[in-house]
């Protein structure tokens, strides 16, 4: 990719080895990858290829065993737990396959929650949450509980929540895995619209071949390595 920008994400010979007693299980075997601000890409591969481990490291939920992960100029492997928590809260928005919405909170309160952790004032976070929910087409569901929504609507809440702290990076883990085809298409259209509007960097980890086919960039992982980087 020809660009004068610095990459938002740079992976250099990234490895991950899990240890159980004397047993070592290598999962990532030297990942080299650069992702630039505003890119939208899919990461694909068979089960066991290392996608989930890579996702966890990209999301600062796990640390690499070797190599380097540079996120927005910071070497993630050198940061302590508090610094990683700060980055997760301010720089990264997560969209999970199972939504991870709190059942006892309204839709608005679920979207407010990440802002509350970052110390945003109550009135400001309420206003921002409701604006985001209107943007994703849920202005008529602001005070509903998650269990009163369809799967597609809950995923829209999850997308709004991921955007609440105005992150530079959104990580979406199988974002259409629990949805029917109509809801799936609406979510993908929503991702595309929001990514174009906000310039956020979007990474989707998925088994869905249609997402990989339609994504502007598709990175294929196999046996812990990048085997194809298709644009």
Tell me what the structure shows.
With 231 residues, the protein is an alpha/beta fold. The protein has a domain at 39-50 and 86-230: Rossmann fold (3-Layer(aba) Sandwich), CATH 3.40.50. The protein has seven helices and ten strands. The protein has helices at 51-58, 81-90, 107-117, 122-135, 151-163, 181-198, 209-214; strands spanning 9-20, 23-35, 40-44, 66-71, 74-75, 92-95, 169-173, 201-205, 217-222, 225-230. The strands form two sheets. It has a six-stranded mixed sheet, sandwiched between helices. A four-stranded antiparallel sheet has the order 2-1-4-5, covered by helices on one side. Helix 3 packs across helix 4 (122-135). The radius of gyration is 18 Å and the shape is globular.
Q: What keyword list fits this structure?
A:
single chain; 231 residues; alpha/beta; Rossmann fold; 6-stranded mixed beta sheet; 4-stranded antiparallel beta sheet; 7 helices
Concise summary:
The chain is of the alpha/beta class and 231 residues long.
Low-confidence stretches: none
Helix content: 25-40%
What is the 3D form? globular
CATH topology of the domain at 39-50 and 86-230: Rossmann fold
H/E series: EEEHEEHEHHHEHEHEE
Question: What Rg is obtained from the alpha carbons, in whole angstroms?
Answer: 18 Å
Strands of the widest sheet, in order across it, are 6-7-8-3-9-10
User: Class of the domain at 39-50 and 86-230 in CATH?
Assistant: Alpha Beta
What's the total helix number?
Answer: 7
pLDDT averaged residue by residue: 92
CATH superfamily of the domain at 39-50 and 86-230: P-loop containing nucleotide triphosphate hydrolases
